């Protein structure tokens, strides 16, 4: 067995054993209670202060003007400054916001006492909105659920959520929303190559979006679908939602609504096929959809509801008579994990006479000591019988919603070195 294949399989088996524990005891052990009536708002990070669509909606969902919020800067390197900034942004939209001093970086705070402090618990219990800042997501999980055990503070947050409140988080605060999260996985390519260690790259989340949906953030900007798919395969997830920067997904039960500046990628592995014989990530039939701002998605029915703006625009059905696509070129994407490349490729393909497009991802700076230095991945994005899209330029730019394109990812061997000097004839 090759070193490449052995490392991939050993990593996958090790991850699978750890994940079985994580899924058997989802996120943090919670007593069986009715499903939450509230809203989990997954914000993709880099949320701008002037994004009234998101900030205003948070306050609206929590009861409108005068709604009480508590802000946790727990994940931040500077939790006090971060917390006060977030509280100010909520108050500008009419909320009353309080920063809760529970964070590892507040060295003078006894965290064990703080998460049990009656006065702080009362502030949480009286709130209708909870906000988790960005930073390092492990600080949130390790503070509110050390060793997987919920603290009284986490129980109070769940009570707010169950009775109809809002639990929102940006960046790291969004990562903790699913039952399993990326803990510290900065390299998408490393995850694709099989580096998925329980307690290292992956860990328990807090599970606000439920056990069946995996979420990730900074998604399109950083090409993170490349790391989402291996984790979903290892964990047994069928549905994944990756939210882009300065955007948010509002999740209530099975319904998802996208708001903000951009959109989100939905990954559906219900019909995926894998081949482990190559010793590397090899998956076909991955169903991908792009949800633009204003779009909704029913996770139960697996159905997109395009925004009114898109419905006023053009429907793009490659399988319907009269389909007149705008593009005829056949692009090849040399960095499929690049900034918004996947969503751009999807929009172009659904509006193209081409049936598929292809791309590549690899690490051009992999050291020679890396036994997987020459491992790269080929991507095939293609249309199916149920592929459909919607287009609008109503807001002054080309905007697409895309339902059910398909993606195959296969391992390839890259040349080392990648190129040599041109020597003429």
Task: Explain the layout of strands and helices.
Elements: H1 3-24, E1 39-43, H2 52-61, E2 68-72, H3 79-92, E3 96-100, H4 111-114, H5 118-125, E4 129-132, H6 137-144, H7 152-162, E5 166-170, H8 172-175, E6 180-182, H9 188-192, E7 202-204, E8 213-216, H10 225-235, E9 239-243, E10 247-252, E11 255-260, E12 263-268, E13 273-274, E14 283-292, E15 296-298, E16 303-305, H11 308-312, E17 314-316, E18 332-333, H12 341-350, E19 356-361, E20 375-392, E21 399-413
Helix pairs in contact: 5-7
Please identify which CATH superfamily of the largest domain we are dealing with: Class I glutamine amidotransferase (GATase) domain
Counting structural domains, the number is: 2
Radius of gyration over C-alpha positions, nearest whole angstrom: 22 Å
Helix content: 25-40%
pLDDT below 50 for ≥5 consecutive residues: which ranges? Answer: 1-26
Number of helices: 12
Could you characterize what this model shows?
With 425 residues, the chain is an alpha/beta fold. It folds into two domains: 3-289, Rossmann fold (3-Layer(aba) Sandwich); 313-395 and 406-413, no CATH class. The chain has helices spanning 3-24, 52-61, 79-92, 111-114, 118-125, 137-144, 152-162, 172-175, 188-192, 225-235, 308-312, 341-350, and strands at residues 39-43, 68-72, 96-100, 129-132, 166-170, 180-182, 202-204, 213-216, 239-243, 247-252, 255-260, 263-268, 273-274, 283-292, 296-298, 303-305, 314-316, 332-333, 356-361, 375-392, 399-413. Strands 8, 9, 12, 13, 14, 17, 18, 19, 20 and 21 form a ten-stranded mixed sheet that branches. A nine-stranded mixed sheet has the order 3-2-4-5-1-10-11-15-16, sandwiched between helices. The protein has a two-stranded antiparallel sheet with strand order 6-7. It starts with a helix and ends in a 12-residue tail after the last strand. Residues 1-26 have low confidence and may be disordered.
């Amino acid at each position: 067995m090759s070193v490449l294949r052995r490392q991939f399989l050993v990593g996958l088996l090790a991850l699978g054993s750890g994940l079985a524990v994580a899924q058997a005891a989802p996120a943090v052990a919670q007593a069986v209670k009715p499903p939450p009536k509230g809203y989990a708002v997954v914000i993709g990070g880099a949320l701008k202060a002037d994004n009234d669509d998101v900030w205003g909606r948070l306050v609206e969902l929590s009861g409108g003007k005068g709604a009480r919020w508590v802000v946790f800067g727990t994940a931040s390197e500077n939790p006090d400054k971060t917390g006060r900034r977030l509280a100010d942004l909520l108050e500008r939209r009419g909320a009353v916001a309080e920063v809760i001093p529970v964070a590892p970086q507040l060295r003078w705070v006894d965290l064990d006492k703080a998460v049990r402090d009656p006065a702080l618990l009362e502030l949480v219990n009286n709130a209708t909105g909870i906000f988790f800042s960005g930073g390092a997501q492990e600080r949130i999980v390790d503070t509110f659920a050390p060793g997987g055990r919920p603290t009284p503070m986490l129980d109070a947050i769940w009570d707010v959520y169950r009775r109809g409140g809002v639990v929102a988080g940006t960046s790291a605060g969004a990562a903790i929303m699913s039952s399993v999260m990326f803990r510290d996985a900065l390299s998408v390519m490393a995850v694709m190559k099989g580096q998925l260690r329980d307690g290292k790259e992956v860990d328990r989340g807090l599970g606000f979006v439920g056990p069946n949906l995996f979420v990730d953030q900074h998604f399109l900007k950083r090409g993170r679908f490349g790391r989402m798919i291996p984790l979903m395969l290892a964990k047994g997830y069928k549905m994944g939602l990756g939210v882009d920067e300065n955007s948010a997904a509002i999740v209530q039960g099975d319904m998802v609504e996208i708001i903000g500046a951009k959109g989100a990628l939905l990954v559906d592995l219900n019909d995926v096929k894998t081949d482990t014989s190559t010793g590397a990530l090899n998956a076909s039939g991955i169903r991908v959809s792009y949800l633009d701002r204003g779009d909704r998605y029913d996770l139960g029915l697996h159905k997109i509801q395009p925004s009114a703006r898109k419905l006023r625009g053009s429907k793009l059905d490659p399988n319907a008579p009269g389909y007149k696509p705008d593009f005829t070129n056949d692009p090849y994407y040399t960095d499929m994990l690049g900034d918004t490349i996947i969503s751009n490729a999807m929009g172009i393909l659904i509006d193209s006479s081409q049936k598929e497009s292809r791309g590549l991802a690899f690490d051009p700076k992999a050291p020679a000591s890396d036994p997987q230095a020459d491992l790269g991945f080929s991507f095939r994005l293609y249309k199916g019988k149920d592929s459909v899209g919607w287009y609008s330029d109503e807001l002054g730019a080309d905007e697409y919603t895309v339902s059910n394109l398909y993606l195959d990812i296969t391992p390839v061997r890259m040349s080392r070195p990648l190129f040599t000097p041109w020597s003429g004839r």
